[in-house]
What we know:
Largest sheet: none
Strand content: under 5%
Distance between the termini: 55 Å
Oligomer: single chain
Number of helices: 6
Number of strands: 0
Amino acid sequence: MKNNPSYLCRIALVKLIDKLFYQKHDSRRTHKRAYELIIRPLFGICEDTFRNYRKFPEERLTEDACLSHLKLILTIDVETLKALPMKEAERFLAMLCDTIADVSKRMKNKPRELPTASRLRRCMIRALAEESARTE
């Protein structure tokens, strides 16, 4: 079990979430908040397992223990939860998902243009500007 890739990935993600929530001046509260808001609902682990994962040696986790896009998605989620109350964070993330889905459809309608991160970003900015103009 200790060398199972999915086990190591789970530990790496738990440590990442905890690290993103961590605030030096309030470490006990930030560990608890990370556990209650994301780690327990997502991974279904108890507090003892969470503590054990936090103490798991970094050198045992390889850089490829997890897919980098999972780390990025969790970073977006954690940073949003830190910035906004829970309901507003959920609302913002839902709007972000809707915008990404809409932009993805638009990009598929122009198959001659290669999909790139920069192009997706430009399309998202345009879509958000259009949405703002409609709601003002």
